[in-house]
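Before the break, one more example. Copy the sequence into your notebook; we will annotate it together after we see the structure.
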Amino acid sequence: MILSCGEALIDMVPLHVPGRGDGFLPCPGGSPYNTAIAIGRLGVPVRFLSRLSTDFFGEILVDRLIQNHVGIDLIRRTDQNSTLAFVKLEKGKDPQYIFYTEGAADRSFSPEDLPGKLPPEIKCILFGSIALTMEPSASAIESLIAREAGRDSDSAVIISLDPNVRPFMIPDQKAYVRRFESWVRYVTIAKISEIDFDFIYPGLGLEKSLEKILGMGPRMALTTLGPKGALALLRKDGGSVLRVSAPVVDLPVVDTIGAGDTFHGAFLSWLELRGKMSHSALASLTEAELYDALYFANRAASLVCSRQGAEPPALEEVDALK
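Here is what the structure looks like once it is written out:
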């Protein structure tokens, strides 16, 4: 089972209504939330950990989790408002966002909301995105990761990070990078987009950025490259590094909302579906297996890009796309 923790919000997506003008369509979203939905649709057991509102937007968020087979028993409910994210879409560009988070439920996720002990069936924790740029949610998630990363056996939980950087939410880049590097030291898998690296290590270059991440301790560093596919570096037990890339599938692109989240969820789902969600299994992945995992994740991401909004595919859809 995989545990996704972080923000859940309402994306206000641009909508043109003929005869009425332009407006916004409320859609459930948030990076860890979308990733949980992607995992659930691929048939992998998954739970979501956050603090969600009891307002009508919160009900939409929770109902969508249930409909997509995501466990909600670790969610704390509150009468605080739901976070809203207004999205601007322009052809050929990544989505732009404005967030309304002050006093919102998911932003207020605190160490007191954490379960004293995680269910034993959880093999992987994923975290990241804007929840790590706001307090007290950032400190709450940090304390969970630090606590769970302390296990010392092959059965220890796998920890996977996707920072999903939103620069306008980060007033101090240097302070953010210091904190980001403290997270990286706890993680097993670091999934970081090429655009994220441009903000975190400007001017360093992709290859050196990936090598720097691996040098901090993760077993694997993944990066998504948009239409150029994805690249993975896997640190083997002997110290050598396995470097594997895989392409995307050429489908018409409607928008890229949820593409990185779907990639992350699909990659972790591949590991879980094939019994590779352990430290020893990760270290032993072959070049062919790592390629299959990347290509599986790229196919899922290509499918979500062919649809409006974050609508991850089901397992049979990914399997049917060659």
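The chain has a mean pLDDT of 94. The radius of gyration is 18 Å. Try to locate both features in your own notes.
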